[in-house]
């Protein structure tokens, strides 16, 4: 995997519209793994499955005019997950990281949830929970997010 940092983004037309525009523009140059947005800073992290595609995107998209603004593209490293062997992504996943909860709380509250395959404590107040499928994990995540 290879990651590109895209700077100079404006979210004039909304966050989702900007994300879709980035997916379309950068997706034409290779197979995308994910696009992570940082709205406060006006940046995105575009991750390609193949390094060659990321290099081509860097050459072609640096200085590209998007929504009337020139974007700056640079090669960077993907964000590091606090859980070894996992990657940071917004793509649906069977796994959910629960922070700020004791292992006892995780054990008691997830004991009767259908679809929980296993949970592993990864820190003082953090756990990774594995669900049977992405649909269940997405519902649980929405429940925890409020």
Automatic annotation (TrEMBL):
Keywords: RNA-binding
GO cellular component: cytoplasm
Entries under PROSITE patterns matching the protein: RRM (PS50102)
Domain RRM: 2-78
Keyword Magnesium assigned: no
Annotated protein name in UniProt: RRM domain-containing protein
A molecular function (GO) term: RNA binding
């Amino acid at each position: 995997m290879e990651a590109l940092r895209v700077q100079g983004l404006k979210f004039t037309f909304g966050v989702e519209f900007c994300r879709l525009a980035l997916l379309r523009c950068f997706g034409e140059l290779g197979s995308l793994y994910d696009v992570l947005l940082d709205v406060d800073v006006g940046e995105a992290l575009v991750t390609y499955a193949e390094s060659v595609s990321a290099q081509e995107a860097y050459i072609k998209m640096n200085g590209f005019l998007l929504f009337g603004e020139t974007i700056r593209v640079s090669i960077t490293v993907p964000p590091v997950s606090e859980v070894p062997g996992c990657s940071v992504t917004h793509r649906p996943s069977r796994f959910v990281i629960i922070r700020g909860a004791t292992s006892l709380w995780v054990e008691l509250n997830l004991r009767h949830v259908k679809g929980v395959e296993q949970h592993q404590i990864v820190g003082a107040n953090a756990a990774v929970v594995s669900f049977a499928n992405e649909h269940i994990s997405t519902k649980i995540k929405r429940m925890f997010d409020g």
